[in-house]
Design goal:
Layout (H helix, E strand, L loop, with lengths): L2 H25 L3 E7 L6 H20 L3 E3 L2 E3 L1 E7 L4 H13 L5 E3 L4 H13 L3 E4 L15 E3 L7 H12 L5 E7 L2 H16 L3 E8 L7 H10 L3 E5 L2 H14 L5 E5 L5 H7 L6 E5 L8 E2 L3 E2 H12 L5 H20 L4 H9 L2 E4 L2 E4 L14 E6 L2 E6 L19
Parallel strand pairs: 1-4, 1-5, 5-6, 6-7, 8-9, 8-10, 10-11, 11-12
Antiparallel strand pairs: 2-3, 12-17, 13-14, 15-16, 17-18
Amino acid sequence: MTRLALRLVWGAAVIGLLFPMFRLSVAAEPIRLGAAVSLTGSLAKLGQETKAGYEIWMEQINAAGGLNLGGSKRPVEIIFYDDQSDANRATKLVEKLISEDNIRLILGPYSSGITLSVSTITEKNHAVLISAGGNADELFERNFRYIFGIWPLASEPIQATLDVIHRTDPQLKTVGIAVKDNLFPLTAARGAREKAKQLGYTVVFDEKYPAEMNDFSSVIGKAKDVSPDILLELGHVKEAILFLKQAKELGFSPKAWTLQAGPETPDFKQALGAAANYVFWYALWSPAVPYNDPAFGSTQAYVAAYQAKFKTNPTFNSAAATAGAELLGLAIEKANSIEPDPVRDALRAFKGETIMGPTEFDKRGVSIHARENVVVYQIQNGEDVIVSPEKVSQKKPQLPMPGWAQR
């Protein structure tokens, strides 16, 4: 054999050895998703819960080899940026994800206000946006084609608490509403007014307060003057705690009240102690409700995996983020593509179940079964007790609420 022939044979052998390695490296190229979430700033706690939900899905998928794309499994990589709880910064970061990082599959931030800003950028760039932390009705009233929500519309869940109160004590007739001047609470207030009218309640107090509120004494004073049977305080955790503290100080005690958001956090009960008792609140997900799940197998398995990683229980913010990321992953596999249009079409066609329950999207991108999965709690003797739906209820609701002196 000539020296040239030997070289050709040797070269072919080397290529033959390297070719499988080359194929492996291509197959292992990660599927990149992007997320701008609040890791610092006023929404940091909730933003971190959202990030945790995305992360645990990514770890679960990668432990199984990744997503199946083109017959090969590829790992998932999520590029995270901190929006610092600022909508303008979030918008710029999502623009960066799209234009510089070349990612057009976006996992959404926490809060409806930030999501509203971000969604204008994703829609303009035909980038898919999974809204796992924002659910204001306005998000889905603009004929956008690339946004998909995991939660029920913001106007709907508060209605479930009013339903429970009405069934439990039909003698209650009047409602008062204190609402933060912020997109999500204002949307919830609209839903509360509609439900109150439907149930035959009279709204005797309806007060909007500034987004930065450090003293509720004037608001509570006005409510106390008309003495509504039911009081709804619609804001965030800071406002919920302060409102109850000052209500106790001023001796304002309706016969029932429901607050959002806030009571779902450990901070609420720790800060208020016995003053937190009798408060109704809702959750968009509960570990007590069993569902099947393509990635984790079941709700219980998801909770166990989350506890093992983060040493705490998942919140409904975390669960929604996990389900949102999972749905995006399933759509990528179904579409056999990471291009936004086929992924969007696969999401529109999805019908199945995740840890958030039965899932299917309407033409607006709204999860049409999400409202059916709302769980209502009441704080009783310092514990969160499920009082609705009946199939998972732990105790009966306690109404009417006694005055402060009797607690």
